[in-house]
């Protein structure tokens, strides 16, 4: 939630961070996950 404000404040004293934020400002990483589980359920002996 507070991430963007924290990054903007940190960028005031960090030129590389400021440049990165400017470069990536319009990029969105919102996508549906395509990961599938890598395990199979095995029956347990009880």
UniProtKB/TrEMBL annotation:
This is Ribulose-1,5-bisphosphate carboxylase/oxygenase large subunit. GO terms for molecular function: magnesium ion binding. InterPro entries: RuBisCO_lsu_C_sf.
